[in-house]
Design brief:
It comes from Streptomyces solicathayae. The chain is α/β, with parallel strands linked by helices. The protein is about 30% helix and about 10% strand. The chain has a domain of about 180 residues: Rossmann fold, CATH 3.40.50.300.
């Protein structure tokens, strides 16, 4: 259907007939241009309203709204909005609750930490290589757990974190329940809290591709400070290794300590004797009595490589 609207030439003496809106041209007829219908008119289209200059809006049209210059032309689009006023962001981010995950820091999503799975086996001759691991280094006071764990973490070729349970326990400044003053409900509660915090940190490190080694004096005959809690907080992929030098070495290293990290000789001997219960447990044990820190860390890496190939039952 084609609607043709004729314009009245200036000075005309009447309105030309207008086809009805619902009308259609006769069969075989072809619509004629405006100039053909009205002799004397220029070849181009004329304004729809007599007396209105070309490009002017329809009289009575709302001000500020551009009108099409000829029938059928699309209406002009509004101009591009100007720059935002002061205080408005040019790139507003998504609002919280509109689909953005809650576990985000800025625009970097953080995967939630889950239980650590058993790592894939690595060639023994290459040590642990680039495997992502969760390791628990066990030993009495003076065994060198913290020093060896830190050295092993720093010497790996892949990102590796070190977490010492004693360091985390001492985050409590006021009201710290020192186990040396006696093991009671307060010291046990703070120990459990520190262990849970270490496990939470280890799981988040591993969820982001960073290995983690933890150290703690875990006793084989005390379930409250046993392996069960560590397995529960970290996951079944945790690899425990016992560091157990001779009593003479432990006493010598303990004497070099200061502050609340130094224990009495009697207490050191008692702890060392209870740690001997790990023999026969199935866990790998390293006697580092004659090893320096670097050698012990290298032996630890070899032991962990074998543990990955054949995980210990614990």
């Amino acid at each position: 259907m084609q609607i043709v609207q004729a314009a009245v030439p200036p000075g005309g003496g009447g309105n030309p007939p207008v086809p009805p809106l619902g009308g259609a041209p006769a069969p075989g007829a072809h619509p004629q241009p405006y100039a053909a219908q009205h002799p004397g008119a220029p070849g181009g289209l004329q304004p729809q309203h007599p007396g209105a200059p070309a490009g002017q809006p329809h009289p009575g049209a709302p001000a500020g709204q551009p009108q099409p210059s000829h029938p059928g032309a699309p209406a002009q689009q509004p101009p591009h909005p100007g720059p935002p006023s002061a205080g408005q962001s040019q790139h507003p981010g998504p609002a919280w609750g509109s689909g953005m995950p809650r576990d985000t820091t800025g625009h970097i999503p953080l995967p939630p930490g889950g239980p650590v799975a058993v790592p894939a086996p690595a060639p023994v001759e290459l040590g642990t290589g680039s495997a992502t691991l969760a390791v628990l280094l066990i030993g009495p006071a003076g065994a060198g757990k913290t020093t060896v764990a830190r050295h092993w973490a720093r010497s790996r070729r892949v990102p590796t974190a070190h977490i010492s349970l004693d360091d985390v326990r001492e985050w409590v400044c006021s009201g710290f329940a020192d186990p040396q003053a006696g093991w009671n409900e307060h010291s046990e509660a703070q120990y459990r809290l520190a262990r849970r915090t270490c496990g939470f940190a280890a799981r988040n490190f591993l969820a982001n591709g960073i290995s983690c080694i933890l150290d703690d004096a875990v006793f084989p005959d005390r379930p409250v400070v046993g392996l069960g809690g560590w397995k529960r907080h970290v996951g079944p992929g945790l690899l425990p290794v016992v560091l157990l030098p001779g009593l003479e070495i432990v006493l010598e290293r303990n004497a070099e300590r200061s502050g609340n990290r130094r224990l009495s000789d009697e207490e050191v001997a008692s702890i060392h004797g209870r740690m001997a219960g790990w023999y026969g447990s199935g866990l790998p044990i390293i006697d580092n009595s004659k090893y320096d820190v670097e050698t012990t860390a290298r032996v630890l890496d070899d032991v962990l490589a074998r543990s990955i190939a054949s995980p210990p039952s614990w």
